[in-house]
Amino acid sequence: MKRFGQKLKTLPAILPSGGWPALGAAAGFAALCAALLWGRLCSLPFDDLEFVARMPWALLAGVFAGTAALLLALCLVWENAKPLFYALPGGCAAFALLLSLALPGEILFALGLCVPLWLCLKWTTEHSAPPQIKMPNSNTDITIYIAIGLFLAFTGMVSYFSIIRYRSYNATNFDLGIFAQMFESMRHTGQALTTLERNAPLNHFAVHCSPFYYLLLPFYWLAPRVETLLALQAAGVGAGVFAIRAIARRLGCSRNTTIAACLLYLGHPGIALGCIYDFHENKFLAVLLLWTVYFLLEKKLWPTLLFAALTLSVKEDAAIYIAALGLYALLGGRKEWKEHDKKLRFLFAGLLIGMSAAWFFAAAALIRRHGGEVMVSRLRNYYLPGEGGQGFADVVKVLLSNPGYMIKEVFTREKTEFLLWMLLPLGFAPLAQKRGSRWLLLLPLLAINLLSNYDYQHSVKYQYTFGSAALLLVLAIWALRDMAPALRRRILLISLCACLLTTVPVFHERVRFYQLSWSAYRAQYTGADAALAALPREAEITATTFFCPRLSGRAAPVYMFPNYYGPSRVTEYLVCQEEDFEMFEGLEEFLDQHYTLLHETSFARIYLADWAFAEQIQEEKT
To answer: What's the rounded Cα separation, in Å, for the pair 524 and 511?
Structure first.
């Protein structure tokens, strides 16, 4: 006891200034975490005041006192305040994560949770360096092994949940059924033909010019399954971690900053949330664009042009990303290039801008050749009155002549929340640039995500954020490199915490639903698979959206109900489920007019067209 008393006398010297309030805050967060866990066990959400009315105050007091005593004991044993430096931000982060899991998808709520986190991190970094992972002293760059581990974990997890989503009939025609059918056509004919995309025979290049798909075709040819496409997509997105690592090392970032950048890439909601939504070429933009940036920083001409060409091959509007890099090299790269490299800088800039312009016009011509038009209609909010004001030139005219209108269209509530989704997980670091010319890399964010009023383009749950998120992360790495060490550590920690608060709740909610659905109804899904496989392969089928991906591998045409581009097709068979009658208006009337129920499982209903049913009866009589 005497020795313990002597130890207690050293506490004032051990605890730093503000140590006692920090101790109380850490114990308080532990008590609040216990309260939230208790509420979850009792099915009491924290935003219901009944939660407070039934609060077990004795439990909270016990957890508070026990945590405070434990932390004090650890401080005495270690003879320093390190336990507080771990416990305070850790307890606050755990408390914030538990709250965010209860309200997933609420970005303003996540922003509010970051306020106490920032204060805790500020106290920690002001009184001591935050906990750091000590790397072994070696000539080997351990970040490559960490990047490999992160890539394998990400690819495995995303592949698994994407496949579970597909097998549990949660994947949709847009955008898995159309591409699964397209790849099957490419495997047999070499042409990107679909009937599901516009409910009529069509080459996908009439909608989007994406020759990049042919680079994926050999993998699909080896394993012609929808699961192959989903695994390829997961690997393509995950592979961006290697490019992020290379960029961070090229910019002179430390190993810890490089590892944090890799985690930010894989954990950013603009990357992690959309990667399990069906299949889309836009998701390959991140890895290709990041390698283009890396080789541009390395001033290696041919690799830069190669990856710029690969980026452009993803889609016609990929030109905006390469043009932004070219503009940066032209207008903002003066200090990045030595004087004797001036001609080389103009060569890079000219080639990148020239490639992007040439590709856009060539892709637009190819789309017109296949009978389509570039989707300028997604910028219809900038169309001028009258029939003549609906072209790309008129959109440009509005943007240049009336910036006030553009600002009004960009800074809406939904798009402001989208900006929070994109910037909060990076600690707003992309906006802290010492050189204003780097802001040119924000042009794709404006052009692709913010100008249009098409809801999907300013949502992190879909495919339109991958290129913009990649460039934002590059800007964040640049800004972090230029910051003072203490501020850099603080920004990195708050960014990692913000990724947890924004990505984990939404990702967890979605994959938990897919997993529960697969576990609970696996037998029903298997029965539906067997029923669909038994349909004649030469018969044309109409199906609702959740059945289209499972029918996409058929040789005969498959169409979707409802048809958004004309009257719905009456084919030999129609496949739907009971829930579709509430989801799709007019389905019941359509069935009554044209179909007779042929077969029903616990999940799927298969109808036969009346004319086919009559023919079948006649054949049986004959």
So the answer is: 19
| Burial letters 457-477, b for 16+ CB under 10 A, else e | bbbbbbbbbbbbbbbbbbbbb
Task: Classify 606 as helix, strand or coil.
Answer: strand
CB neighbour burial string for 352-362, b if at least 16 within 10 angstroms, e if fewer: bbebbeebbee
Q: Rounded to the nearest 5 degrees, what angle is found at the Cα of 480, between the Cα atoms of 474 and 482?
A: 110
Strand segments, DSSP code E, in 126-234 are 193-194, 202-203
pLDDT per position as a tens digit, 322-368: 999 999 998 875 666 665 577 788 899 999 999 999 999 999 999 99
Torsion sign (Cα): 505, 511, 514, 515 = negative
Whether this prediction's pTM lies above 0.85 is answered by yes
* DSSP state letters, 385-452: SSTT--SHHHHHHHHHH-HHHHHHHHS-HHHHHHHHHHHGGGTTGGG--SSGGGGGGGHHIIIIIIS-
Question: Lowest-confidence range among 82-96, 254-268, 333-347, 511-525?
Answer: 333-347
pLDDT digits over 310-329, tens only? 999 999 999 999 999 999 99
22 has pLDDT over 90: no
- pLDDT recorded at residue 531: 94
At 460, give phi and psi (nearest 5°).
Answer: -80, -5
Tokens matching residue 202: 């069509």
| Torsion angle of the four alpha carbons 364, 368, 373, 376, in this order, in degrees rounded to the nearest 10 | 30
